[in-house]
Amino acid sequence: MTIKPLIILPEPILRQVSTPIERVDAEILTLTDDMLETMYDAPGIGLAAVQIGVARRLLVVDVAREGEEKNPQVFINPEIVASSEERSVYEEGCLSIPEYYAEVERPAAVTVKHIGRDGKEHVVEADGLLATCLQHEIDHLNGVLFIDHISRLKREMVIKKFTKAAKAKPV
């Protein structure tokens, strides 16, 4: 397993819509292992493939709390097929927008259809932190960032800050 470098805002690939995965093969399984290793190292609770520069519809999550046993989950070609009317607000952060957090309102529960590591179709009904995490990561696959769910003024300030930092970084 290899820890991959994270793509940071304002890199344009973060706004790209990821392409579906045709089949689960050794290359995809290696990619999921690398993504899990990268996510745990960061540390984070979710990671979309596009965040390591691979614009494919793949994400990994693990919302186990500190002290609990790890519970890594892999979602290939995930699709939200149902969302609750009820809403919830969580303070979200993102490995691609380090050290910035904001409250985001999303559906409190979602049903997600996806392909697992076993190549079979699965359906997960999620609520709480897992529902928020899945929605956040699926947004990544569609070129959407969590800052797109906050006020335009706050979003523009964040983008400006990260654009300035990227320009200041030596090549």
Automatic annotation (TrEMBL):
It catalyses: N-terminal N-formyl-L-methionyl-[peptide] + H2O = N-terminal L-methionyl-[peptide] + formate. GO terms for molecular function: metal ion binding; peptide deformylase activity. Removes the formyl group from the N-terminal Met of newly synthesized proteins. Requires at least a dipeptide for an efficient rate of reaction. N-terminal L-methionine is a prerequisite for activity but the enzyme has broad specificity at other positions. Pfam families: Pep_deformylase (PF01327). Fe cation binds at C94, H136, H140. Its EC number is 3.5.1.88. The keyword Iron applies. It comes from Neorhizobium lilium. InterPro entries: Peptide_deformylase (IPR023635), Peptide_deformylase_sf (IPR036821). Keywords: Hydrolase, Iron, Metal-binding, Protein biosynthesis. SUPFAM superfamilies: Peptide deformylase. Binds 1 Fe(2+) ion. The active site is at E137. Its cofactor is Fe(2+). One of its GO terms (biological process) is translation. This is Peptide deformylase. Belongs to the polypeptide deformylase family.
